[in-house]
Amino acid sequence: MRERFSTTDIESFSRVRAKGAPRRGRRSERFDDHEPEVVFGFDEHGAYAVDSDEYADFDGEHENHENHDDDSYDDDGYDSYDDNPDGGPAGADRWSTWDQSTPTEKGPEPRPAWVVTELAAVDTELGLVKTGKEADVFLLERAVPGTDRRTLMAAKRYRDSQHRMFHRDSGYLEGRRHKESRIARAMAKRTAFGKEAIAAQWAGAEFTALCRLWSAGVAVPYPVQILSTEILMEFVGDESGTAAPRLAQLRAEEVDVEDLWDQLGRSLSLLAGDGYAHGDLSAYNILVHEGRLVIIDVPQIVDVVANPRGRAFLERDVRNVGAWFVSRGLPEHRVGELVGALEFDARLG
Question: How far apart are CA 339 and CA 292, in angstroms?
């Protein structure tokens, strides 16, 4: 059995639970039979959010490249499950959670052939891919024992209210509202209830955005499913589990700068044509795998029409990532040309 990870996340693979809470049953037991204290839904516009007067400044480097000391976390108030307490899968961390997500909590159809949906599948955690201020990404294998059905996925887990740093839930959220004023007030005041709402909102917002962008043809990881504050998505990397490097890590001689710029322009054009901007784009949240550019970290996508700063966010996205391309030889005027093209695509005049 692989060593289990510390209980830093609500949906740890060691199945953490609050002290005194009942244990979950066998794999046939549905997740929604254990309704959480707070339940949040989504509408056709995605997850709900609330405005704030706070605004986080960005310097073009994505925050998720900063590592965190493990000592900054504690698992006080949580109790790990014993190994296989209810006849769980031998040699794995849990049964597949595919049947625990509702149809709207699963990725868009048609699904890629590599998505494992068999209920006999098991999930095994293979290690930490990336740590960030709001969520951590783990490498997960989902496989059907006794067969060659196997896939690697990225498991992105948003932290609970005690461990998350809510510094991105302002500014670009203008134009979004929670339909329930009580929840909106709690989120604005950062009460314990409100922080749980924000945690659920961010996970739901990213999953909704990934589904929308994937369906539109934007180069993003395929979203497999969401369960509470954990999103399972396509792992961008090789079969050995080595993650693709970020754009910021690459040298000009390692990539085709012109081709990558063209790929980026096509994805941003599709995004703008749908009325959105990434909102926090930089060379730190773009991956490059075998020449393919993939945009990640999208919970904060901005409605460039509803948000009064939409045009500014769109331009900032292009100029932030454009700085990397210019430093690698791209003519600077190409950045301004892309900004203008995206404003036209977004019908901003």
Answer: 22
